[in-house]
Amino acid sequence: MPDSDSFTIEPSSSGRMLCGGCVPDGVCRLGVEPRDGMWFDVTCPRHWQGGPGVAHGGWIAAAFDDVLNTAALRTEPRMVTKSLSVEYLRPVPVDRKLAVLARIERHEGREWTVSARMTLGADTLATAHAELRTRRPDHYSRHEHWLAGLPLPTNEN
Ligand SMILES: CCCCCCCCCCCC(=O)SCCNC(=O)CCNC(=O)[C@H](O)C(C)(C)COP(=O)(O)OP(=O)(O)OC[C@H]1O[C@@H](n2cnc3c(N)ncnc32)[C@H](O)[C@@H]1OP(=O)(O)O
Prior knowledge:
Blueprint: E1 32-34, E2 39-43, E3 49-51, E4 54-55, H1 57-73, E5 79-88, E6 97-108, E7 111-120, E8 123-134, H2 139-148
Antiparallel strand pairs: 1-2, 2-6, 3-4, 5-8, 6-7, 7-8
């Protein structure tokens, strides 16, 4: 059985950064593409629509989570998100290429503070702020151990 704590997000053979869920597809299902430096192109796929022609807020948060972690993953391959806050300033259109610029605000030991801004032309549509952590070496094995100790679910719960 592979050691879950050896999991890292690194560029695939195609050069793409992909999360564990997207590796089998070879493409980011959220529509996030790293561009230059801390710039990213993001396009909300229509199936993440929340209202007519506009993105679901959960997609916006997930896209920011990818962007903010990818910014830190360039230095440290083992990251998790501790907190994420999003300000939704304007509706975000689906099927339109948007720009996101990320920024590392602070990095000290395992602690990272990062932020990002999503824009279309000159307009800011949303901003995000997150605290990230470099994973402890036993992060996933501790989780698996905890889960294995839980009672098995029954039909009543
Ligand atoms: C372009 C395409 C993009 C491609 C690239 C795509 C990148 C995608 C990246 C996605 C990143 C994510 O969304 S990650 C998924 C969402 N995030 C998570 O699942 C993190 C869940 N939260 C945690 O594991 C924890 O709260 C931490 C690690 C964040 C806590 O960190 P911390 O604040 O530094 O504190 P720490 O001292 O480590 O731990 C605080 C308390 O939590 C306990 N604790 C910590 N870790 C664990 C653990 N694994 N299992 C059990 N318990 C734990 C500690 O014992 C302690 O308990 P006590 O001593 O207080 O009792």
